[in-house]
Amino acid sequence: MTMSDLSATGAKPQRVRVFSQSVAMAFEVNLDKSRSADNSAFVTETEKYYLSLQFAPPSDNREYGWNSEGSILMKLSQNEAMALASVFLRIKPTLKFEKRKTTHRTHQAYKNINIGPNDRGGLLVSASIVPVKMGTFKPLNYNLPVTQMDCVSTGLFLLGFLTLKMPWVSSESIITALRLSESKSGQ
């Protein structure tokens, strides 16, 4: 089943979530609604999809505030999705996105993500948002320990997204390319 089949049938969005007591993280495949009517020869169906990453603080009744003031939402590029897949599949040991300029609830801000090993065998994901002009809103910072099995499921989800975006490339070829890229950057 393709993403267009899922969209046409009204199925639930494709996402993976990781939870802790202090924060939750979600990767979700989204359809760019501004491009959905674009049927030009230069825009393929797969180009209309993008990946978002969201962090949400806990709220009442064992729920998370996905739409709260304290949530962080990032639209990811394909290169960022590849880098994240590489770290969650444990091809690359660490990853940093620093001072990525964006908006947070209509305010100019920097969004940062730092992923590295934790002492329990998984990964520690740190996400923060800092206002460009101090005083416009309170900076947010979240730390999420990710277990080894959550790393695997998240990495496979990201790999699935990459195969959606590049249907002519097999998942084995993507993993091989990520490994080669990491071996070249380590030299």
TrEMBL record:
An individual GO BP term: regulation of DNA-templated transcription
Signal peptide bounds: none
Source organism, top-level taxon: Bacteria
Keyword Coiled coil assigned: no
One Gene Ontology MF term: single-stranded DNA binding
Alphabetical UniProt keywords: Plasmid, Transit peptide
Gene3D superfamilies: Transcriptional Coactivator Pc4, Chain A
Protein name: Plasmid transfer protein
Species in which this protein is naturally found: Salmonella enterica subsp. enterica serovar Choleraesuis
